[in-house]
Amino acid sequence: MSLLRLRAALAGTARLRGAGIPWSVLRNYSSASAKERARRNGICERTELLEVLKARVKQLQAGSSPELGLSKVELGDAEQQEPLQQALAAGPQQDPAPRARQESPAWPRGWVEKMKKEMQQRQLKVEQRLSIAAPEPAPESQGEAKPKSKAKAKKTKAKKSQKTPKAEVAAAWSQSPASSQSACSHLEPRAAAAKKATKVQRPQQGLKDKDSNQFKVLQQTIQSSLECFLFLQQPEEAERLLLLYHNSPAKRRFLDINCYNIVMQSWARKGHLHRIQCLLSMLESVGLQPNLDSYAAVLECMGRTLVSPKTVRRYVQQLRTDGFHVDELFQKCLFEDDGKEKVLKVIRIVQPNYQLPPPPEPEICKSSLLQDFYSRDKAVSYPKLEFSVEELQERFQQQLELELNNTVTIQSVEASKPLTPQATQARALLASLRGQWQDSVLQALQHSKRQMSKFKKASGHNLLYPYLCLLPEEEYVSIMLQILSSLSPQGVSLVVLARELGSKVYDRYITLRKLRSRQLEKVQEIYGDYIHLLAKDGQPKEYLPREYWEKLVAEAGFGPSLNLKECSWPFMVQMRLGMHLLELLVQATKVPRNILNPRLEPKLVPLLYHIYSFQSSWQVGLLKPHPAFSQLLAEAAETELTFNSSAIPMLCPPVPWTSPRFGAFLLNDTRLMRFVDGAAQHQQLLERCPPADLHPVLDALNQLGNCAWRINRPVLDIIVSIFNARGDEKLDIPPPLSEAPRPPAAPGSPSALSKSQKQELLLCKKKAAEMHSLRMDALYKLSIANHLRDKVFWFPHNMDFRGRTYPCPPYFNHLGNDVTRAILLFAEGRPLGPKGLDWLKIHLINLTGLKKKNSLQERLDYANEIMEDILDSADRPLTGRKWWMTTDEPWQALACCMEIAKASRSPDPAAYISHFPVHQDGSCNGLQHYAALGRDLIGAISVNLMPCSVPQDVYSAVAQQVEEFRRKDARQGVKIAQVLQGFISRKVVKQTVMTVVYGVTRYGGRLQMEKRLKEIDEFPEEYLWEASHYLVKQVFNGIKEMFSATRDIQNWLTESAKLIAQSGQTVEWVTPLGLPIVQPYYRSKSTVLNCGMQHLSVKNSSGDQKPNTVKQKNAFPPNFIHSLDSTHMMLTALHCLRQGLTFVSVHDCYWTHALTVDVMNQICRQQFVALHSERILQDLSEFMLEKYCSPGRETRAQWQKKLTEQLSSVPKTGRTQGRNCQAQEQFGDKGEFNLEEVMNSTYFFS
Amino acid sequence: SETEWLVQHLQGPAVPFRRFIACPRLARTVQQCLQGGASPDHQPVLLEYAPGPGILTRTLLNAGVRVVALESSSAFLQNLQSLENSLDGQLKVIHGDLFRLDPLGTGPVKPPAMYSDQLFETMGVAAVPWRADVPVKVFGILQQRKERNILWRLLFALYECSSIFRYGRIELNFFISEKEYKVLTAKPKDARAYQALTVLWQVGCEIQLLHMEPWSSFVTNSKNGGLAVPKTMWLPNDHLCLVRLTPRQDLFAGSLKPTNSLPFIFTVKQCLAKPKSKLIDRLNSWSLDKGGKLLKELEIPQNARTRDLCPEGYRRLFEALQTSDMFTETWFHDDALESIRNI
């Protein structure tokens, strides 16, 4: 569970760029052990995030890191050298590189690749330098003389050093117009073209892919800089930058039509038609075709000035001859501000009767699983909230205000503590220091901007300058100063801080853009109408939130303009911006050094110091606050916490998701799918997907997000009282730092310590750091909860790349630990009904972890038996017998006790209005899906797919099976089997069985076993290795025996993924609900950013890299199963909606009111049956065959044949018995599991 | 041929990659190198690390050297032990590994890991004062994969006078790769080679090149018989270099002491983490605010880069820092303490 939580937390921070990423979460990179890290990596790429934080040292690199010898390559005999040079000199069109490499002997390949990698890195650096400090004067008069000579100089330079392979790489790269074009067409908005481009790109490998990746980064950088100028309304600057590239034949290839369009738009805003005409002729001169957006800019511009109808007619005519239609302008272009009205005005000059095109008919999802759900005649009214339109409107205003402020400062739960005079003094000092910093940082910022603009005037373009002009200067300063108060005393990696700063600026910029482009006004207008669907006094019914929103948008005639144009900044730009701000901060902040020690002379010293932490051959640059400052902060014990507004649950129902880029918060930019930095392929995939295919997923997320919550105040108060006292580790309330173990008093200076004392000191420090981070995490959660104690709130949801759903606010949400879950209640209350009280009691017993193997009735009986303890816990939680503290999930148990007490004491328990969520958990959900896929009878029984009187326990079953194998072997005299007598238990096998579904390997399984066996004191140590080796083999055999199809399916998935990845492609599939999925695992490549303070090595992952075969293959089975469990959850959510249930989920744990548990259980089972009645594996196989092995290509490579064979041999499932009949007889007929039985299985989810 | 058989036998997933001396000519060269320089009447005991098939051992024994052989692989142990038994105390064979001495964890250790006091007791060598003559010579071929790691660990032991250096100035004679030798002996301003390791070794030891031998002269236990020469981009690496590292007698003569040597190592590491940065910036970034004055006193130019300062300069800089009150601030010590554990 803790792992899950960690991942959830990470996922949260990954997405919520703006949320003040607390170091408590991100610090893990240094404290997590290597093993832990490896484990996390194995499961989920997302945690890679943490690994990104390493900065690489040049110095050590030169010494000991793996590197290649240039001289070596040159010394290699001619045969090996030839393919290498071919590969290097390969023109992009013929592309003999992959083939050449296949022919070359196996071993030099590594070198070749490594060398290329390094070359590329260097090349990028060079290129960046060029783009930042382009030393050519701005060619105001479009004079081409200077850039040309510059280019010449560059060429001759290249020639000079052409002897080395390095120069050849560079040359090959800079002269590959074909690759640039393919990348351009890739960006074209028209879906067909994009598709074509990807198809063409697929077989391209090797050199060019890497090139085009860097190419894209540069292209994005130019585009986002141009957009900055558009936002700043500085068309002159935008044009200057454009010309800088346009006029240089070498750099021109970085420009695509979008760049010109942006400049045109910025002129259009000002109504300078002649500038746009110039740009159009420039387009022509470089052979680019104007597209729809170009015409939109022209027309908008004409709308802002006086032009003759003749001119208008000419352009409209040209638009038509280019194959566009006027209607398309209003259907496809994303207008900002009043652009649309202006264009319409101009069109009406030539076509006075022109009417806006009617909105497209809403499409309806055709998934067979949801036919009922979407059928119009069965539509049911959408469940209403308990609020009136007016109340919701008010809440909307509150939320809007919150998001407009960008950050929110709340009182922490520690505020209730009394204030000491010492603290008052410290706070005053802090306040005065902050005032000083405010001024000095502002000055530093202004100074650096002045320097930059001077430089810019002298010599061209400065990359960062426009990004430093977007916000008012004070906002940059406050963003920078925010960093200070959350800085850990142990220091934070520069990379983390830089990213945080960069993304905060970005978020703020997006907000401002939304304001300026009047997007917010439009959202406000639609939302005002939208809440009528949800409010109790609203009229409309029979719509889904998304449908209603879309309808309102169509009626208002906004078209697609509610969406903001894609304007994300390249990761590199964000990092550079962040680093620049960080450098300013380090320079400008000072602190008197005598805070700690008044005897020292009062001198100002830097507040932050930059220091390296060494980890074998790596070194990580850290920024640490001066200890005096940390001490001051601790003394001041400030009780204000500042969060990004997206870290707080919403105060009004979220905006429904209507597209991959629109939904959730009102202003905060939220993505439908979370991803690690720089991985854009998910978003591309979603955008390419037909909109109707995404409807089920969007509707499910909307349903989860529309659940209203409130705080369980009595429980919160108890938790806070313990938190503010001394904490309690047993109850998972982290104690304050004052409870941390103290190192023994040091005699004199620290250097005089003995080795063991030093060791102890280090341990104490480590423990204190851990405690601090846990404490802060809890402080954030509880403080947010306390802030919301009297409010109703909502958690907008999004999902990860497998479709698993998560609430967006990262700290406080229902996915959290026992403590957070215990303080959450449904805002909506429902009567308990006849069976509700019983469900509450059963739920309580489930939370205790007792009676796991007993039937529901027995659990209920037990609850009734201990009713006295339950009531005592509820009445005197801290002074009574404290039964609740002994349970597995004590806080939720306590909350449940209280609810039971209230309900049972009410005059009519059945009428008692309960807000309490009751959970139903899938038992080993992953194996449930496998068992159902393979129709394994024994397996199905053991994971409760078959009706049984008592719940089955798969772990005991496997343990039994393994014991049986062992006995057999022992009788045959296998030594290790004899040694293991009496040691095989449920506990030993549990972890391995649980993780089998998630793709644990024999290697990992053995380590798990070894750990378990080590815990058994009596087990002879010398047999550890052999025994664990034997056991893991037997567990795998046991699972194979019980889930005979599971291993087959797993192997098939793994093998398919391996072949796909080996062919240079990533594994993609589509869930039964139509959600497209791509596995984002690539061979990591890092780019070195040369910043003043330190070189940063930043890993970037984007679609053009080669897939990481090992990860692609190992992660496919678990990811596939996760995509199935998320599908099951979404199906259940949607059908619960149709039945009017409140429903939320924590992956495979479903929550609803006590009244509706029975209904939910039924729906959950129905949907499981429906899901597995689909031809899941066959569909997968067909999809992949189509995708990876589509026939009709002239050359069918060897790998394609192999892959086709592999993908076609779908393992046995319920649907394909015929083929495997023989095999089945061979193994003895174990009978087949009848899927319908799930309907009657009580313990399937319980 | 027996040697080769033995070496070939030493394969498998758990066996580390090793390099051996197999040719008698090379053995004789090494023996001469090792014995050169020392007076014939005082010949300290020679600790041979990982002798393997024992070619060099025999050469040394024939030359009359007292040898303690420290072998971690049981594959070679038997042979060595029978050799030990055939002699009259001139050879002592111990099952152990020089670079698994004094493990950090607590609890009983199993060979080849062991504690240094155990080793020295078995060798029968008692501790001598730092300024006394070399009590023990060590010879070995550094394990290639851990080369740098070993060099760092030895440095810490040297500066803290812990582990083997508790017994005096142990003289180290190691075959190390040429590129690492270039690092150890690099001069200031050398962009590639001048590193923290350089400064610390040059301050701590006299470094003497005894012999250079091409990689191909050594036998390896790799499966395909490959030489597995470590790759390098910037530094030459055609040989293994036999280097003698003799701890300096006057290492702790100034204000540098085993007790305060950690901050020294830390300072050097921090400075040379970014060799192109200015020394003054480094000093200032740690709030050691009198940087400018200090540099002036030491006659170091204000714009000196960290890689410009010679090893002796670092030592003087540190001693100056020691005497000023700057190091009284505890955070510097804390960081130093933390950072060293991560080698």
UniProtKB/TrEMBL annotation, chain B:
PROSITE patterns: SAM_RNA_A_N6_MT (PS51689). It comes from the Eukaryota. InterPro entries: KsgA/Erm, SAM-dependent_MTases_sf. SUPFAM superfamilies: S-adenosyl-L-methionine-dependent methyltransferases. Its EC number is 2.1.1.-. The keyword Transit peptide applies. One of its GO terms (cellular component) is mitochondrial matrix. One of its GO terms (biological process) is transcription initiation at mitochondrial promoter. Keywords: Methyltransferase, Mitochondrion, RNA-binding, rRNA processing, S-adenosyl-L-methionine, Transcription, Transcription regulation, Transferase, Transit peptide. Belongs to the class I-like SAM-binding methyltransferase superfamily. rRNA adenine N(6)-methyltransferase family. PANTHER family: DIMETHYLADENOSINE TRANSFERASE, DIMETHYLADENOSINE TRANSFERASE 2, MITOCHONDRIAL. This is rRNA adenine N(6)-methyltransferase. It comes from Dryobates pubescens (Downy woodpecker). The lineage of its organism: Eukaryota, Metazoa, Chordata, Craniata, Vertebrata.
